[in-house]
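Deliverable D5.2: sample structural annotation.
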Amino acid sequence: MTLRDLAYDSTQVQRRFTLGVALAGMVLATICAGLANVDWASWQWAIVLFVAFDLIGGVAAMTMPPAIRKLRPPDEPLRPVLFAAFHVHPFIICLALPEIEIETMAVLYGLAVAGVAALNLLPVRQHRSALALAWCVGALSILALLDGSVGLEWLAPAYMLKLTGSHSVPAAD
């Protein structure tokens, strides 16, 4: 398997764009944590920045045609649900940063997986874009009420947009 296979046959421009967005995500995560004046150890920073790289870069990657073809095939509605279910980033953050409330991260995880399930298992194909974005707004509103993620203000929006919001981009016919 080559790097190109891992990138779902994306073009060089798409890969560079996704990399740029991922790096910008790391900068955003650093700014949020810096403004919150967090006191994390080096290994905690490494985990947080890796998660930021993956999630924020994933927002860009998941809206590109190669990822849509690979991860949202119309004949396999469970594939995107499993993809979302295996994104356990909120729990990794809880393990790395014990001060983060696991209840908030569990709600984030549950809302994302439920949103992807609704988008792929219910007969809403015609309204998928609107439902995906509306789900993100509702989920982020609920999560804002729970709060408790000082220095990680970017996490919930990136997680929801990568997993649920990316479904607002239709598959090319």
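Annotation notes: The chain is about 70% helix and 0% strand. Residues 12-35 form the longest helix (24 residues).
The annotation will be released with the project's public dataset once the embargo ends.
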